[in-house]
Amino acid sequence: MKKNIFRLFVVCIAMCLTSVCFLINANAASASLFFSDPTVTVGNNVSIVVTVKGDDIAAYQMNISYDTSYLQYVSAKGNTGNFSPTHTTGVVRVVDYLGSGSTSKMTFTLTFKALKTGTTKLTPSGYSFSSGSADAITPGAIGDSTVTIKPVPEASGDCTLKGLSVGGTSISPAFNAKTTQYTASVDFPVQSVAVTASKNHKGASVYVSGNDALVVGENTVTVTVTAENGAKKTYTIKITRAKNPLSTDIFASLGENVKGEIAAEISADIVPTGFTLTKLTIGEKQVDAVLYDERALPAVYILGNDTIEQNFYYLNMGDMTLSAFDYIGITENWLNVLDINMAEIPEGYEVGTFDFGGFERSVFIPSNAETPNHCLVYAIGRGGEKNLYMYDPVEKTYQRFSFAEMGKPEETTAPIEDTDAPGTDAPDTQKDEQKNDKKYEGLFDNPVFKWSFVIIAALIVILSVVGIVLVFRGRYL
Question: Which CATH architecture has domain 31-150?
């Protein structure tokens, strides 16, 4: 009896252990399918992400069915393993497996094009799962996908602004979305402005033009707003750029169709070296000018425009014409060329012209030279001094001529009196004696010679005395 009871107890224990192991294996061998539920606008592509989850997944396969009236298959892509899709009308079959081992999650993505509005489902079927030891895994929770397809929203016709401003100034009147005409003013130095235009509808576009390269006077800046449906509205800003404060409305000509406006003032820090600031009266107005010689043409400062560069120009007040303010020389040491007629003509030279690389300039050239091999130009150097400079056309270099300033007489030494001048009756021998006397007279006047002579004479006397003493000693000894 006791043996039977013991046997029954052992069988019960074994059955309990078997049940526990079965439950453990059942829990470990489950796999679940999860689908995303996206929303898409008709005509666009939509992606559905499918996730396989479990504790020991190594492979899976399944069919995914879809409604071809709503969706059009585009592609399928796996994110792990060795993914392989096969597509037939209305069904996508997918197979995937790991090369080794197992994982807790495997995913793949299906992409379709939305064909019409509404709601449609993607449904799995024929699915199976395997573990890392190639054992079948019992399916657990199996989901599906719901795709919502929305219609294309109607294109907006809103082409208005909700804000408009110009950097550095204010617009008038105050902005209103219904007002399309505005004005603004800027100072002369301002050549461009930043226009900020914010649109009412996010689907609209904004284009700004005319806000760069502002001219003196009135400029038109346009802001064009284009709505989603193509409707347009244009806002305009009339921006007035102030005149140059140096403007005089006095113009001079530099060749045909080239005119420049004379500046009212010249800042002292831009006065060229060697020039002085002065005033000119033109009509009823006074303007600043610079001058290097009272006989020379004055130079005025011209305000630049599209046809003439802002710079100094010589002004002929008789016909109100301009000529170039000419610079030559090496880059590190410019020479400001002056009117050659303002310089004194050096001996052996005359006024002529010389070709400087296709440009002829009035210069001094050697007199009677058929083909001059150099010339002299009159210019102001770095130190502000007016000098003649020699130009070497071979080396194309300039060198200060004679190193003497023009307008100052060269220093000369006093002439030596010629004793042989006409009208003297002294014979040649007398002249020679006079010369010798002067020569010796000058020689004995030299203190070094005097002391040398005294020392030598003293040595001779001492040696003589010593010699006499030695002679007498020899006789009597």
Answer: Sandwich (2.60)
